[in-house]
Structures are given as structure tokens and as C-alpha cells.
Amino acid sequence: MHLLFEVCTSPIWARRVLAGSPFPDVDALLDRADRVLAELPDAEIDAALDGHPRIGARPDNPSSAREQAAVATAGDDIRAELATRNAEYEDRFGYVYLVCASGRSAEELLAILTERLQNDPDTERRVMRSELGKINRLRLQRLLSEPAE
Predict the structure, then answer these.
(1) CA atoms within 13 A on the CB side of 23
(2) What global pTM score does this model have?
(3) What's the CA gap between 41 and 99, in Å, rounded?
(4) CA dihedral for 89, 90, 91, 94, sign (positive or negative)
(5) Distance CA 117, CA 124 (A)
(6) With contact defined as beta carbons under 8 Å apart, do 132 and 64 qualify?
(7) At 55, phi and psi to the nearest 5?
(8) Which residue among 16, 55, 73, 139 is least packed, with the fewest CB closer than 10 Å?
(9) Which helix (H) or strand (E) segment is 60 a member of?
């Protein structure tokens, strides 16, 4: 279960995904992870968000560091703008801006953030849940493809 907690910091998500094992294949695991996420109450989604640092902030775990690698090399102006927009986002929606950052440049992440600030709260909550699902899937796939340490 510890490895699942590294994928998503919601204890309920990790326990419910694990309860579906053994999985016949990767697709069955990913499907279970998606279904469990879709059923989580908002309070538990908030617990999952606790495991994600702000885009542009110093990552506090290896997965986030890998996913936000392009931001680490961004210029000071882009990083400052990300910090400003992150604060606006958190003031507007009450939680951290979450986006599947893998393979995206700092400029692209800033553009997505700026665009999402225009969403109404219900729409943004749905978008955030979708992004969390994408991140969980990527992390599960990476977990299964990397050799154990």
C-alpha cells in the first residue's frame, strides 16, 4: 500500500485500489484507480491534493520533481508569474492548481493556469479531478515499468 500512497496521498484511494487486487493486467489496475478516484468525496480529493506541490515551487517528492522538470529550468520571470497565478488560483478555488505537468514547458503550464482561472468553481473542480486521474495513471504506469529499488 505504501507504493500506492506515493502515487496518490489519499489513504482511502490507496486502500480501495489495493482492495481490487490482484489485477489481471495493467488496464484493470488503471480502470480500478479511475473508478475509485471518481467515487471519492471532495474531502478525500483534498487529501490527495496535499501530495502535490505548487507548480513552480520546490517539489517535495521524486514524482513531482520528475513531472515538473521543465519548470525547474524556467526563467525567473516565468517562475514569478507562476507564483502570482498560483496564488490567484488558490484564492479563487481554495486548493492548489493541479495539472498533469509531465512533458510540458513552464510557459505551457502558465498558459493553462491562466486559462483555467476563467473557469467557474464547479467546472474547475471537474478539470482538477480529471488532471489528478491523469497524474495517478502516469505514476502507476511508471511504478509498474521501473525496477524496484
Answers:
(1) 16
(2) 0.91
(3) 20
(4) positive
(5) 8
(6) no
(7) -65, 125
(8) 73
(9) none
